[in-house]
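STRUCTURE REQUEST FORM
Protein name: Holliday junction branch migration complex subunit RuvA
Source organism: Fodinibius salipaludis
Requested output: structure tokens
Priority: standard
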Amino acid sequence: MIAYLKGIIHDKSPDQVIIDVRDVGYLLEISNQTYNELPATGDEVELLVYHHVTDNDQRLFGFANQNEKDLFELLITVKGVGPKLGLTILSGLPAQQITGAIVQEDKSALSQIKGIGKKTAQRMILELKDKMSEMVDATYSPDSAANLSSNIKEEAVSALQSLGFKKRDAEESIELAAKGEDIDGNVQELVKKALSQMDK
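Status: completed
Returned output:
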């Protein structure tokens, strides 16, 4: 299985990129998120890879960062969501909006994505909401630092990153959500508030 590829960008478009690795061209399907982070054609790039293998086909899906790949792998656990649709979902909305819509059970936001009907949106919520909540809960350890308030913010930022957010976006959202709040020991509520604000 291929874990990542490092080489020269031979060609790129919003939905795929060809990487030249020692005179062998690899075609990777990508999301708009990854496309926007690619350097210019002719420059070196390193992409994480999801190697999808079936009896009749092999396809490579590329990701600019681990958070996007993790979110993709979570999405394709949903019944009826394969790798191609998972990539379409990532292209349809920013990662934070996808995560926020699932946690807040916002079917209408998810249904705006091409290829996602109300039934698929409902399945995504039913199958992923608890998993995402568990990821948030798992980041909290009340005895891990002396300064609890500061540590809670760090744990909340890590939780958002594990759900596919970029670090800068996560930090800004948590700071905004924490203003005027008693956040001691309340990572999950802080993350939920941040996600709710992002959806507005």
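Reviewer notes: The CA atoms of residues 107 and 166 lie 23 Å apart. The mean pLDDT is 84.
Form closed.
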